[in-house]
């Protein structure tokens, strides 16, 4: 007979000797030990997986923060940066099917550990070009770099340049052309990001299923929530790390920083983008270590030992699923007769196509999938180029931009997701309510985004690009507009980008194009004098001086930036509130046995049709607003130096709003179908309540109600949280 431990203590305290079933006692003690080891093992796995989620979120967000740095360092356009950003999704898609199918049958913790190592290898590979492509070279006039130089910025004749200086200059250009192949090393950044995507693939599907398999059923949701919380914290640290590295010069530790003549506020400044990738790679290596010591299987909790599925899943198995059970039994018979893997694969394939047809035959699922794809195109493009937009529109540095996004925007998104789940639970919102909440958050979010059109800054006054040399406001894309009578006597290049700020408040592309005849000082403190183009607007001033660096934007720009931050935070929160209701709508609009398949198709479609193309075509659209392209040392177009602020604002915000508006129309269609299908169900329920027959009519009405729900693919037990 079985005796509890408390009863055993009473018996021994009274010195009464009773027959005790030792096997029972041993089984109880072993069960308690097993329970302790189970709890301890799953908590260790939970901690390790949370740290991995933090590591992958940190490295992913750090990549977003270095978009502009990579663009300047490798002298590439925004469209190519978009391809680099989308390569992560490509790597993820390459092996996601293999990992999802075979991963569950193998040692899941070790596969996750191997994925972390691959992810860290990709992160290290992204940073490698910094150590092989030489030092970063920015455009500066010779007298700024070398204090002993006595050359005039405005070279009236080529004979003014000493022959030795010409030879040295030509030798430097030739040397630069020989090393120009280093500019194609952005391919290693692309391959590294591709490798990151491959390494990240097993973390989510295998990690979450491992928790769901071996955690106590009521604790599984809490554990997964903890993991997702750490995933939200990761981007905060990623953008803050990007802010820190953007303040450090790209070649820190390799060159004398006193010889650097530009500051982090300069358009040509490139921060130590590679340093953050080394830190993120080390964190990924550390995150992989615990998984190599975790077992393949953990002891299952007592309540889940005798069941292959959870009690919640068993609720969805009803008598109305006889057809599905019958087809499943037929497949089992085929598998038993075949006794081979090939026919099992064929039977699975035969089951795959009807399931896919069943899924896309559900109008609610199909329309919501279309709405999500278009909305994610809008959001991914907006997030990818948000740092660039802030830098170019409001004249902010990369460091400050990343700091603001990491400390303000990301927490607003996290709080919005949490609020959406809290609202769903507090008010016990059903599927129709979830659709309304998701639609409302999208509508008001994009409505707020519309107000950002009025919160932009005007173009900086740049002679020959946004303003004429006489001070007339105009936008020109003609390179000949860079030349004027005031600099006609100078031997200037139209490809140079070495901006100076005249005392008249206008930026000139170079000291030569400003017609400056003399300079004083060296490095960042260089001052140019007798600039003929600067003195045109103010003939009374004879000094006509200019200093190194572009002029600051207008006085209204800092105020506009503050307004932009406020609206941006509110918009991020509003759009995020609809995230959880939308996810619930996705789960509740389909049959229970198609949930996993539906989520897989949803993830695949969003990544292929939004994650990969959105950064590319957003980048192409942004490139069309460029006013001044940089040039590579051996010819060819480099990175953009100056954008048309107004055109950039209309392209960036307009593309985001157009895509968001289209997704809202699809969401309205989803809500309309749900309303249409819920109307007969409500009439049936109200009729059952008004009926006089208590037993028979109620039964009939419930049967009819169940029939209506089955045909619309949302079982009543799944319509509420």
From TrEMBL:
Gene that encodes it: Slco1c1_0
Asked if the record carries the keyword tRNA processing, the reply is: no
Q: Cite the NCBIfam families for this sequence.
A: oat
For this entry, the protein name equals: Solute carrier organic anion transporter family member
Per its UniProt record, what Gene3D superfamilies does this chain match? 3.30.60.30, MFS general substrate transporter like domains
Q: Which reaction does it catalyse?
A: L-thyroxine sulfate(out) = L-thyroxine sulfate(in); 3,3',5'-triiodo-L-thyronine(out) = 3,3',5'-triiodo-L-thyronine(in); L-thyroxine(out) = L-thyroxine(in)
Q: Which UniProt keywords apply?
A: Cell membrane, Disulfide bond, Glycoprotein, Ion transport, Lipid transport, Membrane, Transmembrane, Transmembrane helix, Transport
Q: Which family does it belong to?
A: Belongs to the organo anion transporter (TC 2.A.60) family.
Kindly list the places in or outside the cell where this protein is found, as annotated in its UniProt entry: Cell membrane
Q: Which CDD domains match?
A: MFS_SLCO1C_OATP1C
Q: How does it sit in the membrane?
A: Multi-pass membrane protein
**Segments passing through the bilayer:** 40-59, 80-104, 110-132, 230-250, 270-294, 365-383, 403-423, 435-455, 560-587, 599-622, 651-674
Q: Which domain of life is it from?
A: Eukaryota
Write out the GO MF terms: bile acid transmembrane transporter activity; sodium-independent organic anion transmembrane transporter activity
Q: Which GO terms describe its cellular component?
A: basolateral plasma membrane
Which InterPro entries does this one have? Kazal_dom (IPR002350), Kazal_dom_sf (IPR036058), MFS_dom (IPR020846), MFS_trans_sf (IPR036259), OATP (IPR004156)
Q: Name one Pfam family in it.
A: OATP
